[in-house]
Every structure is written in C-alpha cells, then in structure tokens.
Specification:
twelve-stranded antiparallel beta barrel; Tubby Protein, Chain A
C-alpha cells in the first residue's frame, strides 16, 4: 500500500502517546484517518500498534522492538497478521553526534536517515541537557531525510509549527509501503529524545 503524503499528529495523555495519521491532499489539507496509533509509556519493550480507527478495532499493523531497553534496538514492522514488512533502527553512535541517524529497510529499499540541518541538531542536544529547560518540549523545527545508496530520497519527515507535535511525511519512492513509512514517522517522534 503506497501513500505519497500524510500527516502525523501526536496527542499526549497520561499513560500513552497517541498518533493520528491522515492523508494529505496536494494542497496540504488533511483528509480521512488512515491509522490511529498508540504507544504505552514506560514499557520495557517498545511496541506501537496502529488501528483502523480510534475505537482501536481492528489492529492493522504494528512495530515492535527486538530487544528490551536497548538504545540501538531494531524495530520490526508487521502487518495485521504478524507478517514482517520491514524494519528500522537508530544508529546509536551517530545519534550521539550532531545529526541523528536512522536506518530503514523494506523490500527493495535500504535507506539512511538523518536530520537535515546539523545546526538545529546541535541546538536540540544542548536544549536536552540544560537542567532548567531539559523537560520542556523542544521548540525547534527539525526535519529528517532518508536516502538510498544512490542518494535518492525515500522518505522525508518535516515537523510543522504547532502547539502539539505535527509532521508532514512525504514518500517519493512508491516501493515504500505506507505501513513502514508511518511506523518510521511515529518512531521519529516517540524515540527522538532517547
């Protein structure tokens, strides 16, 4: 299933992060709900389940970490029947440096993602470690670009100006399954501070 552009909106509640994923029209207006995701906080093994609607019925795809509490954890993306669709992982060594790095794999695709602007990446690291503001949400807009070995863009995630986290996701490569792209987009928000 291919979706060329969609929006991801985060809704924060006490014990879970919730995400709405909506199609985007060419003019940028949001369309219907494509998926609703929920991530439980403070779990030993990350898992995010995507549902067809907010009533959480039925589950349509998910991603799950292979390891427990591992900063380099590989996350597998599964369809509704548990069949693997792809995987992604954070490049821990690179994530300690300025632009954070990710790896994304799906059938026919191997891509590396990093923050578009190194200066913003450095400012975000400083913001994260300041004792006074470290728990205040990051006010900086940050964008990620995923490219394959030939330098072709596979996926972009652009944070939008809004009170709550909102991202515009563009998928120029039609080989990238929407479910893998949506999983990567939600992980960028959910795991970025780690």
């Amino acid at each position: 299933m291919y979706v060329p552009r969609f929006a991801v909106r985060q809704r924060i509640t006490m014990m879970v992060n919730r995400y709405e994923i909506r199609a985007l029209a060419p003019d940028g207006t949001e369309g219907g709900l494509l998926a609703f995701a929920q991530q439980k906080r403070m779990t030993f093994k990350e898992q995010v389940t995507f549902y067809a609607d907010e009533a959480k019925s039925p589950a349509v795809f998910s991603f799950k970490a292979r390891q427990r509490l591992d900063v380099r954890a590989e996350n597998d993306v599964f369809d509704e029947s548990g069949n693997p669709l792809g995987m992604f992982r954070k490049d821990f060594a690179k994530s300690c440096s300025a632009p954070r790095g990710w790896h994304l794999s799906a059938p026919g695709i191997e891509a590396v993602g990093q923050e578009r602007r190194a200066g913003i990446a450095v400012l975000r690291r400083v913001w994260d470690v300041l004792p006074i503001v470290g728990d205040i949400p990051v006010p900086f807009l940050f964008h990620f670009d995923f490219v394959d070995a030939n330098g072709a863009t596979v996926l972009t995630s652009e944070r939008q100006r809004s009170v709550r986290d909102r991202y515009t996701i563009t998928v120029p490569d039609p080989r990238l399954d929407f479910r893998v792209a949506a999983s990567m987009a939600v992980a960028l928000d959910a795991f970025q501070g780690r």
